[in-house]
Amino acid sequence: MRKPNHRVRGLLSVVAAAALIGVAGCGGDGPPATHTGARPAPAPTPVWDTGPDSVAAVGDSITRGFDACSILSDCPSVSWATGSSTAVDSLAVRLLGRSRAATHSWNYAVTGARMADLPGQVAKAARRDPALVTVMAGANDACRANTASMTPVTDFRASFEKALRTLRATRPRTEVYVASVPNLKRLWSQGRTNALGKQVWKLGICPSMLGDADDLDAAATARRAAVLTRVQEYNTVLRQVCAADRRCRFDGGAVFDYRFGTGQLSRWDWFHPSRDGQARLAEIAYRGVTRRGA
Predict the structure, then answer these.
(1) What is the phi-psi region of residue 89: left when phi exceeds 0, alpha when psi lies from -120 to 50, beta otherwise?
(2) Which pLDDT belongs to residue 47?
(3) Are 132 and 56 in contact (CB under 8 A)?
(4) What is the pLDDT of residues 107-166, one digit of tens each?
(5) Which residue, 277, 272, 259, is CA-closest to 70?
(6) Closest CA to 187 of 209, 168, 166
(7) Rounded to an integer, what distance in angstroms lies between the CA atom of residue 38 and that of residue 42?
(8) pLDDT tens column, 52-87
């Protein structure tokens, strides 16, 4: 093989030098490239604000503080969501402080309401432009005259979806905290130890679960099991529908799982939460709303 002449050798030297420069510039052993004037990308804004500055509540008798202060009466001052009572320290008080909660929290829950009533309540709440809406509904859909009268799961889902659509139509950024439906069978098992409570139950409180409270035969057991199953199905709907909305948080079943004792039940009906029970609900909600992350 012939040796390359001077001209060829010079050309090869230039090519080799260019190749070395290229390797260094592509992140080999050479120094990394620097870019002057570039700004770091801003951190993404969290979707969930753990410090909302106003609260509106929707739902049923639990959110109205029913039977917590006197028999067969609402007592919204002890509501877990928006009440002013120092014995409860409601979610609104914990989030906003007592003075601001008095002017920036609103309770649109209605005793006896079912999920079908929620869109109307939400429409009223939306007019306040709240930063957070709390939802606790579904117990009355299971608490019917009999199991055949319980709200079908498909209807329950449709009503909840409609409620969220109603809110989002005017308030796309409002956060929604959804509490699970309580374990009605556990409330029966606790309350049936009280003779006065069982007499009040006969006035028509949740007959599908509480009717014939001391009857433990196969039919009564099956009836209560059917109510419990329906409540669990409702909670599945709440979880699934809420998961589809990036500004909605379900409590993960925390209210359903809470082991209400007799101290957390009304001393008049032994079924609705007492002041202490309302305080426990407020604690659960506060942890859920202020939790960091998804």
Answers:
(1) left
(2) 87
(3) yes
(4) 999 999 999 999 999 999 999 999 999 999 999 999 999 999 999 999 999 999 999 999
(5) 272
(6) 209
(7) 12
(8) 999 999 999 999 999 999 999 999 999 999 999 999
Residue 74 backbone class (left: φ over 0; alpha: ψ -120 to 50; beta: rest): beta
Say what percent of the chain tops pLDDT 90: 80
Per-residue pLDDT reduced to its tens digit, 11-44: 334 333 433 333 333 333 344 444 445 555 555 4
The mean of the pLDDT values for the chain is 88
- In SS3 terms, the chain reads as CCCCCHHHHHHHHHHHHHHHHHHHHCCCCCCCCCCCCCCCCCCCCCCCCCCCCCEEEEECCCCCCCCCCCCCCCCHHHCCCCCCCCCCCCHHHHHHCHHHHHHHEEECCCCCCCHHHHHHHHHHHHCCCCCEEEEECCHHHHCCCCHHHCCCHHHHHHHHHHHHHHHHHHCCCCEEEECCCCCHHHHHHHHCCCHHHHHHHCCCCCHHHHCCCCCCCHHHHHHHHHHHHHHHHHHHHHHHHHHCCCCEEECCCHHHHCCCCHHHECCCCCCCECHHHHHHHHHHHHHHHHCCCC
Per DSSP, what are the bridge partners of residue 56? 106, 133
